[in-house]
């Protein structure tokens, strides 16, 4: 009976959180670009390591940006790549000399390569706005224009934007897309409810002056990640009125899905490890409830196979979780992808185990990323 009540309570809490997020997505205003005359200057900062495979697509999308070249620069900070990333950049630079671009080697001062890379770029910025992305991303052509319009209308000093996955037609990529929709939905819903706590460094902007006013990455250096989420939470603690979320398909950055299961696990552990540095109470509560829900589902299945729990209880938990997950993912898919949406039963059954492994790994272990080992 105690197990039954415990599982039931966790399921109710989970459903409550997800329904709250679903309502927040609807509250968050969808921004329509006005295409006003560009005046905002941007410094696109891109930390990379071993991105030779992905860099051509990113550079091609930069060349296709519909924004005056004199109003943006590109700063690529290479974290000791062991591939042909620099050569690819130099070849592109020869053809696209009209763009103001800089390629720097990272200077490692902490255990966080991305924070070091951004800190490396800050002293040489030529424009007031920093806008970060990753080496495996593809930028929409109206990316900077949409940010400019949003900044002019809202007067924000920090703006988070959406990210979708560029996938192939296979189950593993679809699985990652579903997970990303859940993350993006949670991000939008939390902002819509006035409880924002998540963002993605693949699509994140702030003014240099605001960054310095916050104290930069001071107090965050002990975390291997968090150049995005933890900085956002720091801003929301100090000056929440200056932080916004740009809910617009025109500003949505695409990043590539990963083909290797081990690499996906390591990436997710890296992401989950950031949660140990959360300062937002709502974020901590949601992270705990989500982990508990997934652990409860896995435990319930094991108990049912051992005849210690009846299967109707297990499937009731799954049905509630499936329903609220579907609502959040479907709504997010409509807003960001405008494509067909299907939540396979197999994915919804497997995901709790996947999430439990990454959650436990983040709490008690480290991870490997780009050929390096990290402790949280």
From TrEMBL:
Q: Which organism is it from?
A: Flavobacterium fontis
- All residue ranges annotated as the Glycosyltransferase 2-like domain in the record: 43-211
Report the family membership: Belongs to the glycosyltransferase 2 family.
TM region(s), chain numbering? 6-26, 285-305, 341-367
Question: Its Gene Ontology molecular function terms?
Answer: glycosyltransferase activity
Instruction: Output the Pfam families linked to this UniProt entry.
Output: Glycos_transf_2
Name assigned to this protein: Glycosyltransferase, catalytic subunit of cellulose synthase and poly-beta-1,6-N-acetylglucosamine synthase
Which terms are listed as keywords in the entry? Glycosyltransferase, Membrane, Transferase, Transmembrane, Transmembrane helix
Gene3D superfamilies hit by this protein = Spore Coat Polysaccharide Biosynthesis Protein SpsA, Chain A
